[in-house]
Amino acid sequence: MVEAQSWTTRRGSNPRLDPAADHLLDIPATPPGDVRNGPNATGSLVSLTAVIIASWYLSNIGVLLLNKYLLSIYGYRYPIFLTMLHMISCSVYSYIAIVWFEIVPLQHISSRRQFFKILALSAIFCFSVVCGNTSLRYLPVSFNQAIGATTPFFTAIFAFLITCKKESGQVYLTLVPVVFGIVLASNSEPSFHLFGFFVCLGSTAGRALKSVVQGLLLTSEGEKLHSMNLLLYMAPMAAMILLPFTLYIEGNVLGITLEKAKENWNMVFLLFGNATVAYLVNLTNFLVTKHTSALTLQVLGNAKAAVAATVSVLIFRNQVTWMGIMGFAVTMFGVGLYSEAKKRSKGTAH
Question: Which residues cross the membrane (predicted)?
Fold first, then answer.
């Protein structure tokens, strides 16, 4: 018969409960919540968010200024090839970020139908970006951004034409100052160029069309892709779409680029830096949304146009008029009203 252990025996058999063995283990006390979540942690989080927002502004404005410098001032007049370099850059960096660094889980294309949907989005994406880059050859960045601010107008039109989605009367009313502001700015723009204006309008319309079509095509749970995964698949498709166009329209652009690079190595750094910043635009979009919210990204986007226009005027010294400034301000005011009206209409719907 086995003698049952007493409480003292059992307690003594565990060194963690034996007072004599206290020197063997040094278990630190759990810090209270106010220490764990103290001002240092909050300050670090605020600092990180500020760095991400600053990076977002730098990349978004930087790619605009670099595109303008290359296409208009430096004399590199090949917007399709430049856009193709952007797409190749996005393909490579997206693969590294997702497959190597795993910033988001890798998603796979699940069907041929989904593949063709992404291909359609890539074609619209190509059209929008090429038109936007082409317009920078003819228009100052400030006017380019003013036209780009009319995206809500085109979004509302395409949403109605494609999905038959009707907005509230208040939302439609806010589009009046958006359009009126551009009319004012266009009539008083000293560097107005008709072809550049229509190409920039095409870019803005293409951006709006992509957002509407993307919401329409990739809605089922099995086909939804994270924005970074969507870029991973769209970018190489876009590069392949652009390749025949750049060869046919821009001729021996690769040979010309290599010749320019031999004459001046700065060309290599400009193109490489430009393509890298083009990817950072997409990466910082994701990081801002992750660390703040989609609404914050929208607010930053509204403010970006004004900041980019101001910075471009300071750098490139393009002439502006008070009427043009007023028109830009009216458009931005309308964009702000539109965002607020959309938010209220969504709140009413829920």
Answer: 45-66, 78-103, 115-136, 142-162, 169-186, 230-249, 269-288, 322-339
